[in-house]
Write a structure and sequence with these properties.
Mean pLDDT: 93
Order of helices and strands: HHEEHHHHEHHEEEEHHEEHHH
Structural class: mainly alpha
Helix content: 55-70%
Shape: globular
Number of strands: 9
Low-confidence stretches: 1-19
Largest sheet: 3 strands, antiparallel
Distance between the termini: 28 Å
Radius of gyration: 21 Å
Strand order of the largest sheet: 3-6-7
Length: 362
């Protein structure tokens, strides 16, 4: 009897972390994504609403990130429910966004909105093998490249009037190119990815610190010198990491891996608050930044054998999940505070369930 009690105690103790938090189970990971989906998905629209009152339609670019979350849930579980949703959300985008007509400047009004979808369409093809996903991804990529690439000075413009270059278009372009390269083995994609990275690295990346700038403008009064805004954002750190990881995997050039590690270290050391909790921002749609960061830090951990970040992210997951609204099983961007029990925006609830699909339970 004593032996049985000992092993029972040891089992319970082994599931408790140093902070007193229980490890997250696979059942809880599924519960989190199902709760998120139930709270925000509009089955008639086949896309996600702005808030838990099911009002309106969430921002066009963020729909691709929620689609990624469903794809990651499918890859994790193999559950046919999520496989059906992959096709269904595609249909929602098709119906709401002009049949993925990239030339429609009413629906698509900045280039990065397109590129987030292009990435996700490529991922949908990798999962399903359905040619419609690849067709839309490749046509979108070449349209954005034609319209946004600056052949004279390098890099991609963010908007249609070509007055700014942002991390949020340049690094997703690299990720899209590498996703399509992985599918097609067309070296043209790899060449474009290398070209953009080579231009963007000295512009947006602080190689001494590992931080990633938000945007740059040309100052035409001073021989087109660049004015760089060094505001850091979680999603820019994430897409920079993803770009470097994908190029490292394709080329085996360690300089890319070194860049990714430096950016991840900066994020952990300088973009957290309290007890190593990922920062959040209160701007429009900015609650989704953690979900994007999750996609690419997971690549660094798994694809490049860098497990040193896993405990930190598990701590963030456990903290947010412990503070969830237990009636709805929703979490909030301010992970170390109780999730609001009233109406919340979809952006602000996405971070923890996104992390939970990608960071292995312990």
């Amino acid at each position: 009897m004593k032996t049985k009690l000992f092993w029972t105690f040891l089992l319970i103790f082994s599931t408790i972390t140093a902070t007193g938090q229980k490890n997250i189970s696979n059942k809880e990971r599924t519960l989190a994504i199902d709760a998120f989906h139930s709270a925000f998905y509009n089955p008639e629209m086949k896309l996600y609403a702005i808030d838990s009152n099911k009002k309106g339609r969430a921002a066009i670019w963020t729909q691709a990130i929620y689609w990624d979350m469903i794809m990651n849930a499918y890859k994790r579980t193999g559950d046919k429910r999520y496989r059906q949703l992959i096709d269904e959300i595609y249909e929602g985008g098709y119906e709401q966004y002009s049949g993925y007509d990239w030339t429609d400047k009413h629906e698509w009004f900045i280039y990065d909105d397109m590129m987030w979808w292009i990435i996700s369409l490529g991922r949908a093809y990798q999962i399903t093998g359905d040619g419609k996903y690849l067709c839309n991804a490749s046509s979108g990529f070449f349209y954005v490249w034609k319209e946004a690439y600056d052949a004279d000075r390098g890099g991609l413009w963010w908007n249609f009037i070509h007055d700014a270059k942002m991390s949020c278009i340049n690094y997703p372009t690299i990720i899209a190119a590498m996703t399509l390269f992985g599918i097609t083995k067309d070296n043209g994609y790899l060449d474009k990815a290398k070209e953009v990275y080579t231009w963007a690295r000295p512009v947006f990346f602080d190689e001494k610190l590992g931080r990633v700038a938000d945007n740059m403008h040309y100052n035409h009064l001073y021989k087109n010198s660049m004015q760089i805004d060094w505001t850091t954002q979680l999603y820019n750190q994430g897409t920079f990491i993803g770009s470097a990881v994908m190029l490292y995997k394709a080329t085996n050039d360690k300089k890319y891996l070194d860049d990714a590690i430096k950016a991840a270290d900066y994020t952990r050391q300088n973009m957290c608050y309290g007890d190593s909790i990922l920062e959040f921002k209160n701007g429009i749609e900015q609650g989704i930044y953690t979900a994007i960061f999750a996609q690419y830090i997971a690549m660094l951990i798994k694809d490049c054998n860098q497990p040193q970040y896993a405990d930190w992210l598990q701590h963030n997951i456990r903290t947010a999940w412990q503070n969830r609204d237990k009636n709805r099983n929703l979490t909030f961007k301010e992970a170390d505070k109780p999730c609001p029990t009233g109406n919340i925006e979809v952006y602000d609830a996405s971070g923890c369930p996104a992390l939970m699909q990608l960071i292995d339970a312990k």
